[in-house]
Amino acid sequence: MTVDLAVLEQGTDQGIPPLVILHGLFGSGRNWQSIARALAATRRVLAFDLRNHGASPWAPTMSYPEMAEDVWAALAARGISEAALLGHSMGGKIAMVMALDRPQFVERLAVVDIAPTAHAPIHRPLIEAMRNLDLTDNPRRSEAEARLEATVPEAGVRQFLVQNLVTEDGGLRWRINLQAIEASLTELSGFPASYAEKRYEGPTLIVAGGRSTYIKRADKPVFSRFFPNLRLVEIPDAGHWVHAEQPRAFLDAVGPFLG
């Protein structure tokens, strides 16, 4: 069963398919506002909150085909049959599944720092840190972030995670569904085997962070097998969150492709 996704929209119809932005694990459409604003000069842009994230409803499961169907349903509800896709990390895998599943409805595909392969479920410690964070004494957000420092030493990662804390009844709570995410983590770290023989032959751009380990040398032939019309761009001095760490270079890479 699909869930009704929350969305942030920018721009207006330009006579070409709109752009759909799909965030990564622990993210939301709001994380992409400045990038979406820049890209909205040439296309209508829809940045969705995926299930169990942001303002979208929670669900007990979150496989890639399920989340792809959520997006298709959200587009159909808005009368959109064809779109360009831009996905980061988990959102990149969703975008790839959408393109492989219904290639005739994907005008072009941009994937940010993720491969259609399996990797170790490295986010489990972050889930444990969030789940074990003591919020019972109603701390301020800054205090909650400070408490995370012992288990999440990277300041940028802590700041990213605490964006998921919302105020409710005078206290803080996580707006992401930690239980469902943790239960699905092995599946989210993989890529559906049922897609092994599928192809998307439309224009495809892969943007990799030069300091990231999410795309490896061995992944490049896998990309080419799924996406023969492929161009890969590496942005130096960027890690996994390429769009946040090097926004100007990121826009220089994706802007012409999407425009």
Labels describing this entry:
single chain; 259 residues; alpha/beta; Rossmann fold; 7-stranded mixed sheet; two-stranded antiparallel ribbon; 9 strands
List the helices and strands and how they pair.
Layout: E1 7-10, E2 19-22, H1 33-39, E3 45-48, H2 64-77, E4 83-88, H3 90-101, E5 106-112, H4 124-131, H5 141-148, H6 155-162, E6 165-168, E7 171-174, H7 178-183, H8 185-188, E8 204-209, H9 219-226, E9 230-235, H10 242-245, H11 247-258
Parallel strand pairs: 2-3, 2-4, 4-5, 5-8, 8-9
Antiparallel strand pairs: 1-3, 6-7
Characterise this structure.
- This protein is α/β, with parallel strands linked by helices.
- It has 2 domains: 7-119 and 190-258, Alpha/Beta hydrolase fold, catalytic domain (Rossmann fold); 124-182, no CATH class.
- The protein is built from 11 helices and 9 strands.
- The chain has helices at 33-39, 64-77, 90-101, 124-131, 141-148, 155-162, 178-183, 185-188, 219-226, 242-245, 247-258, and strands at residues 7-10, 19-22, 45-48, 83-88, 106-112, 165-168, 171-174, 204-209, 230-235.
- The strands form 2 sheets. A 7-stranded mixed beta sheet has the order 1-3-2-4-5-8-9, with helices on both faces.
- Strand 2, helix 1 (33-39) and strand 3 (45-48) form a beta-alpha-beta unit.
- The longest helix has 14 residues, at 64-77.
- The radius of gyration is 18 Å and the shape is globular.
- The two termini are 34 Å apart.
